[in-house]
Amino acid sequence: MGSGGLKWSEPSLEQSDEALILEVIESANYGDYVRMRVSLREGRVKLTVPWKTKTAQLLEFMRGCCRWIRKNLDRQRQTMMQQANARSAYGAKIRPGGWVYLEGTRFALQPADVQSVEIDKSSSGQEPLLLMPSFSALPEPLAHKLQATFVSRFLKRRLCEMYAERAPQMCRAMHLFPTEFVVSQAQTSWGSCNAKGVVRLSWPLACLPVKYFDYVLVHELAHLAHMNHSRAFWSLVEEFCPNCRQTRKELRAIGLKSIFTDEILTDAELKGIFRQALRR
Length: 280
Known about the structure:
42% of the residues lie in helices and 20% in strands. It has helices spanning 55-90, 140-174, 210-222, 231-240, 244-254, 267-279; strands spanning 5-9, 21-27, 35-38, 44-50, 99-102, 105-112, 118-119, 129-133, 180-184, 191-193, 198-202.
């Protein structure tokens, strides 16, 4: 094997009509053992091996691990199915006639003559309305990106309001006070807390029922006292969020990346678009 990665399908590893797709990465950092991590992306198994491992050795190792790999792939597929069911509950669809969830309530999206996204307080229909700029003078793909960007900014503002409404009381109850609160763009974690006492919460939390916001807030505040996941940490979390284990399980099933899948423009891209519009 040469340096870098190698990808192939090894028919001899089949236990059904599906081949195992392997991504093999050689590393000089590993000793005389093979580290394997199963990844479910397109059925591909990622395998990290010592430098210059012979193909025959690798295949022998893989044959010995086939049952374990299949078991874990099946388990991950079940998890993904559960996530897909949960995603249908809170996933946004940003377009005219689409929807977005705000604190667990579904709002229909309607283009209107507005400068920013706002709740339509005059709506008397069964489903509440969220008005968003139409950008009708722009090409549809660009208008769609702008609408998604404006909706995401609306959700970020709402998350800040939720923090201002709910965090002070919880901070006083726990006797734990962060040095700063930041709305996070993270796609892999609902929240975080660093050694400087900065608490970050991911903005798609604004789409979910407030019990999830409360759990993530308590979880991150608890890290101000315990920068780990020790028994003392979980004891503190459970004291202020008794159903934390079930709520944590539900959050994992929902999946952070599934809430808002539409493309969002960066600040630099927005500035560029508005500069071009002013020049016309």
